[in-house]
């Protein structure tokens, strides 16, 4: 039996350590890992699948290496801009790619619930998304908050870019109907809390998820990477991996 070899981009980071710890439990093996200054071409050559939890600045070289060797890739890095998504779409013409702001089962299901709730509730229900992460996190709103915002916007049949409101401060004026607000808290060692609030007249619905540790992300990422190995070129989602 052939054991899948996994290459980690961002191997010395918090997620890199969590991933390396779980790889053997899921019947795979480590091909190796790189950090800033490492050679993605050599890693892609040695790996059956790449798993990226690093920095948006790594993406261009990583995707170029993966395309050259035809190596599928799971991208968990957050803080991506529109230019990064364009790079991912282009790479997905040649290789299997799964990019997501959250690889956990709980958030994958939560996104479905949020989309459904947003589709059923009218625009008079204000949608606010809050997230709380550890003091080391460098991007805001979190990738998960944006993913949940996309789900809410899809439920309402609008693009998130049109509805998104972040960073309220000062004399903001009253809230505009139909907007989707984001707020970010940073502190301590919180692995990742997310809450989506539907605030109506006289009542509120709150849907949320709390990650208690990074092992849930590591398990979700390696499960997705193993699923990706034999997939044809294209862009995939965690809902397809987990069947939710
Ligand atoms: N999608 C999901 O479910 C999850 C996503 N994440 C995301 O994963 C990312 C990493 O998180 P975390 O592990 O906490 O962060 P860390 O800062 O702990 O680790 C990031 C690692 O990436 C490395 N790195 C930086 N630049 C490059 C580069 N150009 N090429 C290769 N490696 C590079 C860093 O190396 P060096 O120190 O040498 O700079 C570091 O080892 C974040 O974007 C985070 O939001 C996290 C958890 C779950
Ligand atoms: O940086 C983190 O730690 C996390 N990042 C992801 C995000 O931006 O949503 C996922 C998770 O919440 C942990």
Automatic annotation (TrEMBL):
Catalytic activity line of the entry: (S)-2,3,4,5-tetrahydrodipicolinate + NAD(+) + H2O = (2S,4S)-4-hydroxy-2,3,4,5-tetrahydrodipicolinate + NADH + H(+); (S)-2,3,4,5-tetrahydrodipicolinate + NADP(+) + H2O = (2S,4S)-4-hydroxy-2,3,4,5-tetrahydrodipicolinate + NADPH + H(+)
PROSITE patterns: DAPB
InterPro entries in alphabetical order: DapB_C (IPR022663), DapB_N (IPR000846), DapB_N_CS (IPR022664), DHDPR_bac (IPR023940), NAD(P)-bd_dom_sf (IPR036291)
UniProt keyword terms in alphabetical order: Amino-acid biosynthesis, Cytoplasm, Diaminopimelate biosynthesis, Lysine biosynthesis, NAD, NADP, Oxidoreductase
Domain Dihydrodipicolinate reductase C-terminal: 106-242
Protein name listed in UniProt: 4-hydroxy-tetrahydrodipicolinate reductase
Positions annotated to bind (S)-2,3,4,5-tetrahydrodipicolinate: 134, 143-144
Subcellular location: Cytoplasm
Principal cellular location given in the protein's record: cytoplasm
Function text: Catalyzes the conversion of 4-hydroxy-tetrahydrodipicolinate (HTPA) to tetrahydrodipicolinate.
Domain Dihydrodipicolinate reductase N-terminal positions: 5-102
EC number: 1.17.1.8
Active site positions, chain numbering: 133, 137
Stated family: Belongs to the DapB family.
Binding site for NAD(+): 10-15, 76-78, 100-103
Pathway involvement of the protein, from the record: Amino-acid biosynthesis; L-lysine biosynthesis via DAP pathway; (S)-tetrahydrodipicolinate from L-aspartate: step 4/4
Regions crossing the membrane: none
Subunit structure: Homotetramer.
NCBIfam families: dapB
